[in-house]
Amino acid sequence: MTKSKIIRYRDLEPQWHVPGAKEPGFMRWLISWVGGPAGYVNPNKDVAEISQEAVVGLMSLPVGQRQKGLHYHSVAEIYVVLKGEFEGFDGTNKTHHAGPMDCVYIPAGVPHGVRNCGAEDCELIWIHDGIEPVGTSVYFMDGVVPADYHTPDEISVIRFLDLEPSFAAPRAKEVGLIRWLVNWVAGPAGHDNYNPDVAAVSDKVAIGMTVLQPAQKSVPHAHVDAEIYVVMRGKALINLGGPNEEIKKLDGVYIPGGNSHSIRNHGEEPLYLLWVHEKPQKSGSTAYY
After folding, report:
1. Could you tell me the CA-to-CA distances from 154 to 73, 91, 93, 112 in Å, in that order?
2. How far apart are CA 42 and CA 59, in angstroms?
3. Exposed/middle/buried for 209, CB within 10 Å: 0-12, 13-18, 19+?
4. pTM of the predicted model, to two decimals?
5. How many H helices and E strands in the chain?
6. DSSP designation for 2
7. Per-residue pLDDT tens over the stretch 57-101
């Protein structure tokens, strides 16, 4: 069985490789906890865990900066905002706004760009629902989409304020195991979805968050497919089948399918843990121990 892996934030060197990233007004850097193999998008290819299914990274967009022009991917791109505020564009004169804990779902082929419209640096987690060969993304550096380009779908914003916390996970209301969960993105009917009336629907990935108060822990469990954790706030002890290991803000964890794991908040503030399932999990498929 493939071992689980912790990807430490301290080991991920910021990359300034995307178009315009070193120009004032367009400055931004990226890292990846999980990325594709050689030849595919993976800013930290020497450190990140390799996946054939998804990419998970972070973009920092300082105050006063924006992405240069517009671009689109051959896969869906999903943003979850950690800090700051941004205004987004879709190439059809439509704009949208997102703040902390909001999620933006950008279907494959939809031109987009974002601008930091707040008073602090903006940090967002970006997820691709598939791996993409380097050079596949299409950029419109002047911000103008050709008139003959047909945008295949629309961008949607899943607001955190619309996501009611769910205590439906096994034993989630039991003292010592109290935790709540939300889904920004989830599978279709028949798959786990803690916010079925609000979450974006995908047949490729599921994205959500678990919140653990201090002194609480999760039930040991294993998913059928790989799960990726990113610590959004707080710190915790994670058990991956051996000794407990501490993970802190912006550390990532890659847990292959079938690997049991559990997590305990040993800190003094709530733990906010983002999770990405490389494939939506069918209802009842997760094994709890």
Report:
1. 14, 10, 12, 10
2. 13
3. buried
4. 0.97
5. 0, 24
6. P
7. 999 999 999 999 999 999 999 999 999 999 999 988 899 999 999
